[in-house]
Amino acid sequence: MDLSSMLDSTARKFPAKEAIVAGDRRYTYTDLVEQSRRAASVFRDAGLAKGANVPVVTLNTPGFVFATFGLWRAAMVLAPVNHKLTAPELRFLITHSGAEVGVVDATLLDTARAAAPGVRWLVTEAAAFPEIEVDPRDDFDALMAEAEPWDGEPVSETDIAELLYTSGTTSDPKGCLHSHRGITTVSAYCTAGTGLQSADRFLIAMPIWHSSPLNNWFLPMMFLGGTAVLLREYHPIELLRTIEKERTTAFFGPAIAYLAPLQATKAAGLDWESFDLSSMRLWIAGGALIGKDTMQTMRSAFTSGGFHQVYGMSEMGPVGTTLLPADQERKAGSIGHAGMPGVDLRVITLDGADAKPGETGEIWLRSDTRMREYLNNPEATERAFEGDWYRTGDLATLDEDGYLFIADRINDMIITGGENVYTLEVENAAREHAGVADIAVVGRPHAEWGETIVAVVVPAAGGGPSVEELREFLASRLAKYKIPRDLVPVEALPRNPSGKVLKHRLRTLVQEGAPAA
After folding, report:
1. Which residues form the AMP-binding enzyme C-terminal domain (predicted)?
2. Which of 61, 372, 267, 298 is nearest to 309 (CA)?
3. Cα(235)–Cα(253) distance, rounded to whole angstroms?
4. CA angle (55, 58, 63) in 5-degree steps
5. Tens-digit pLDDT profile for residues 97-116
6. 8 Å CB contact between 506 and 494
7. Average predicted confidence (pLDDT) for the chain
8. pLDDT at 172
C-alpha cells in the first residue's frame, strides 16, 4: 500500500476522529485528507514533477504533516531535514538531493536562504511570527488555504517515498531511499512490536524529521487511526503539562528526555506528584544505550506504564530490536533479544561466523523495510549489503540468553597489539572519574602496536586528570591493554546536530594536531 492510500483508508474508518493535535489546532482525519490534497496542489503549481525530492525543514507543526502527505499524494519524495543544521550543513543536503523547492518553518527561513538561495522556500507558520518578512507568494499555509484540492498522481507502492539522511558521524551524510511499501511496513512492524492501538494518543515531542519519531511512532498512528499530539519543540516541563492536558498514552525519547523533566521540576520547585501522568501506558526509549541505574531512575519516576527500549537504523526504516518491559531490569543495557516482529537478525564475528554466547560480532539485519539504496552513492550501497542483509556497522556481544549488548561501532573499534578494544567500554569506565566531564576514545596509528589508545577528555569544572592519573584510575577497572596511553584535553567534543560524537574529527585531531570542532 502507498502512504496516501493508507491515510485515505484510515480516514474512511475514522472520519471524525482527531488525527493531529498541535496546541489549540485540531484536525480530524477528514481534515487531514483535505489538507493533503491542497498541499499536493501547491507542490504541483510550484512546477514540481513526480519523483521530485523536496526538503522539509520544520519543527513539529501541522505544516510538516500537511507537506508530508501532500508530497506523497503528488507522487513526490519527502526529504525531512534536521532543523538544527547550520547553513553549510544544510547546503550539502540540499545540493545532494537536487531540490528546487523546499518547505521551511518561518523561524528557520534565514538559514535556509543562506544555505540554498537558488531554492524556492515555501514558508509555514508565517502567521505565528508576523515579525518575519515572508513573500505572500511563498506563504505555504496561505497558498494551501487558496488551493483547489487535487487528488494527486497515481502512486505505486514501489515508488520512492522518503529520502532519509544519515547523521554523518563518519563521513558526509548519506541519503537513504525508502519506498512507500517499506515505510507502511514499518508501521505494521512497530505496531506489532510495541502493542500500539487505535485508541493511543502518541505525544510527538522529539523532532518529527528524525526517522524514528516519523516512521516508528507518527505514521503508525496514521496507520491505526490513533492521534498524534505534536509538541512544537521539546521542553521538559511542557512535556509533562501536555501529557496531563491531552491525556496522551505513549511517548518516545532518549534517556535525557526522561531525566530532564526530573531535573527541571526540581530546579523550578515543582512537585513531581502534582503532574497527572496516569493516562500513559507506553514509555519508549531509544537513541543511545541506557544503563541499569538510569533505567531504574526512569522507571521510578514514570510509573504509569511499561518501558520499551528500541534499536534501529535509518537504512532499515528504522526497525531492529526491542527490549520489552519485563526485561528492563534483568537485562539492563541490552537492546533486546533477536529482531522485532518482521525483522531477522544475525550477529556475525569478524571472521564471518555466527556469534556464539559471549562472542562479539557485527549486527546484520534483514527486513522488507530496508532502503532501496543510497542516493547517488552506489559504492556505499554495495558496502552496506551482503545479499539481503544490511550490515549495520554496530558491534554487539551476545549473552548466554541471546540478548544483545552494543560493544562499539566497527569503525571506532581499536586494534592494538592484536587485541580488540571496544571504545564504549573504556569511555564508560573513564566517566566514573570525577575530573572527566565528557570523553571519547580513539585510536592513533602506531608503528609497532598498529594503534595506540588516546582519550580525548573534556575536563570537569574543577579540573581534569592527567594521563598518569587517568591510567592509575583505570588500572583496577580495565585490562592493561585497554587503558589509554595518551590524553588530549578539549573544551568540547565535536558533535553533529543529533548529539553524536564525530570521531573522525577526533582521529584527525590526535593524529595531526588539527582542530576537532
Report:
1. 425-500
2. 298
3. 12
4. 95
5. 999 999 999 999 999 999 99
6. yes
7. 95
8. 80
Rounded Cα–Cα distance for residues 95 and 97 (Å) = 6
> How many whole angstroms separate alpha carbon 306 and alpha carbon 309?
10
Amino acid at 378: P
Write phi, then psi, for 132 (nearest 5 degrees).
Answer: -90, 125
Give the Cα separation of 429 and 5 in Å (integer). 51
What does the alpha-carbon distance between residue 261 and residue 237 come to, in Å, rounded to a whole number?
A: 6
Instruction: Give which of 337, 234, 242, 223 is closest to 280, Cα–Cα.
Output: 242
As a whole number of angstroms, the distance between CA 322 and CA 387 comes to: 24
Residues in Cβ contact with 439 at an 8 Å cutoff, skipping those fewer than 6 apart: 427, 430, 431, 455, 456, 457, 458, 493
Distance from C-alpha of 287 to C-alpha of 272, rounded to nearest angstrom: 25
Q: Are 238 and 231 in contact (CB under 8 A)?
A: yes
Cell numbers that stand for 313 in this block: 537504523
Question: Within 10 Å of residue 434's Cβ, how many Cβ atoms?
Answer: 11
Edge-to-edge, what's the strand order for the sheet holding 436-446?
436-446, 450-459, 486-489
CA distance 119 to 122: 9
Alpha helix segments (H runs only) across 370-445: 378-384, 423-430
* DSSP bridge partners of 352: none
Per-residue DSSP letter, 447: T
Q: Are 43 and 201 in contact (CB under 8 A)?
A: no
Global pTM value: 0.90
How many C-alpha atoms does 295 have within 13 Å on its Cβ side? 26
Within 10 A of 388 (CB to CB), how many other CB atoms are there? 12
Please state whether beta strands 120-124 and 101-105 pair in parallel, antiparallel, or not at all (unpaired): parallel
Helix (H, G, I), strand (E, B) or coil at 111: helix
pLDDT bracket for residue 437 (50, 70, 90): very high
d(CA 286, CA 319): 12
Average pLDDT over residues 238-258: 96
Q: Contact at 8 Å (CB) between 92 and 110?
A: no
Neighbours of 340 (CB within 10 A): 23
Residue 175 pLDDT more than 90? yes
| Confidence at residue 336, expressed as pLDDT on a 0 to 100 scale | 96
| Closest listed residue to residue 60, CA positions, set 7, 124, 109 | 124
What pLDDT band is residue 287 in, cutting at 50, 70 and 90?
confident
Of 409, 430, 410, which Cα lies nearest the Cα of 482?
Answer: 430
Pairwise CA distance, residues 367 & 375, whole Å:
20
Domains of the chain (ranges; CATH) run 29-155 (3.40.50.980), 187-409 (3.40.50.12780), 414-512 (3.30.300.30)
Contact between 81 and 56 under an 8 Å Cβ cutoff? The reply is yes
Contact assessment for residue 383 and residue 416, using Cβ atoms and an 8 Å cutoff: no
